Amino acid sequence: MEYSSPRGRNLLIVSLIVSIALLILKFWAWALTHSNTIMTDALESIVNVIAGMLVLFSYLYAQRPKDRNHPNGHGKIEFLSAGIEGGLILFAGISIIGKAIYNYYHPIALEKLDLGIGLIFLTGLINHVLGHFLARQAEKENSLSMLANSEHLKSDAYSSFAMVLGLGLIYFSQLDWIDNLMAIAFGVIILLTGYRLIRKAIAGVMDETDPRLVQDIIAKIEQQRQENWVDMHNFRLIQYGTNLHIDCHLTLPWYFDTRASHDEVKQFEELVENICDRPVELFIHVDPCEHFSCKLCQKIDCSQRLAAAEKRVSWTVENVITNEKHL
Q1: Cα(271)–Cα(225) distance, rounded to whole angstroms?
Q2: Under a CB-based contact definition with an 8 Å cutoff, are residues 52 and 12 in contact?
Q3: Could you tell me where in the chain the CATH 3.30.70.1350 domains are found?
Q4: Contacting residues for 127 by C-beta, under 8 A, at least 6 apart
Q5: What is the pLDDT of residue 93?
């Protein structure tokens, strides 16, 4: 399976070029209208351009192969990129709110709102289309930086569409103070967007487990588990950019020799690799079954069984992530 492609790189390059063009267009609209609402869009476009540069760099850097100094690859740089982007978005949101509050007490007359509305609608439409294509590619490649960029572009597009409605209200009502109120509202939305990106970046750096992903993988293993896999526990999952690293303990019959145990581990690894839609590295520790394992062991032709099988323990997130054999 291909996990990165020239298409992803080209989309990010196009995104960066388009962001620069939209930045110029939005500042032109702001210069024409003097609208703080439009200024919020223009300031966020500065973040789009800087973020586009960061995303392109981190995306390309994350694809570099493992080396002696980076045995787990370079994928975590995408978390750093997403965190910086989130910080820039927070700064933009604070600046927008501050400017709106200032102009509430020192108002500036609005001009040429009809032209400004048209320009902002055009930029929103372009961002929405570009964000949609980036989101689809990010899903294919499991790229956090590309996903963050797509979410930012789509969020920017929705903000632009909402701004068009608000600016239309100002245009027809001639109530210029609504402009500052809208700027503050969009500033708060931008702050929340930045917070979510920083939260996601910190979670990645801290190796926070994605509960949905873990649940999905364990459920699929449970569906296809083999009778020689007596037990599984101490399951851990870490994400390194697009790559997954999985540790777990697999309990096998105690009398299996090294070759038999290796074959079972190989079969387990192939199953997990087929389940995951991205590169995965597995470290599996093999445990021998104990006397208490017999009551939950589903192996039919076991010549060493000491007790009849009483139950089948279904593997779930709750009982697989613990570092204890099941009883």
Answers
A1: 9
A2: yes
A3: 211-320
A4: 22, 153, 154, 156, 157, 160
A5: 79
CATH 1.20.1510.10 domain locations along the chain: 6-205
- The pLDDT value recorded for residue 72 is 67
The 10s digit of each residue's pLDDT in 86-105 is 888 788 778 778 877 877 78
- Taking the CB of residue 172, how many other CB atoms lie within 10 A of it? 9
What is the structure's pLDDT at 254?
Answer: 93
Say which residue the tokens 């980036």 belong to: 134
- Please give the pLDDT value at position 1: 39
The stretches in the chain having pLDDT less than 70 are 1-5, 71-73, 75, 142, 144-145, 207-208, 241-242, 327
* DSSP secondary structure of 6-60: HHHHHHHHHHHHHHHHHHHHHHHHHHHH--HHHHHHHHHHHHHHHHHHHHHHHHH
pLDDT for the residue 267: 94
pTM for the structure as a whole? 0.61
pLDDT at 298: 85
Provide the token pair at 45. 């476009």
Residue 221's pLDDT is: 93
Q: Which of 179, 173, 44, 38 is nearest to 115 (CA)?
A: 38
**Which residues have CB under 8 Å from 262's CB, separation 6+?**
none
Q: Can you read off the two tokens belonging to residue 233?
A: 């526990």
Tokens 């000491």 — which residue? 306
Please name the CATH architecture into which domain 6-205 falls.
Answer: Up-down Bundle (1.20)
- Which distant-in-sequence residues (6+ apart) come within 8 Å of 261 by Cβ? 252, 286
- By three-state DSSP, how is residue 172 classified? helix
Q: Could you tell me which CATH number the domain at 211-320 has? A: 3.30.70.1350
Torsion of CA 270, 276, 279, 283, to 10 degrees: -60
Backbone angles phi, psi at 235, to 5 degrees: -80, 125
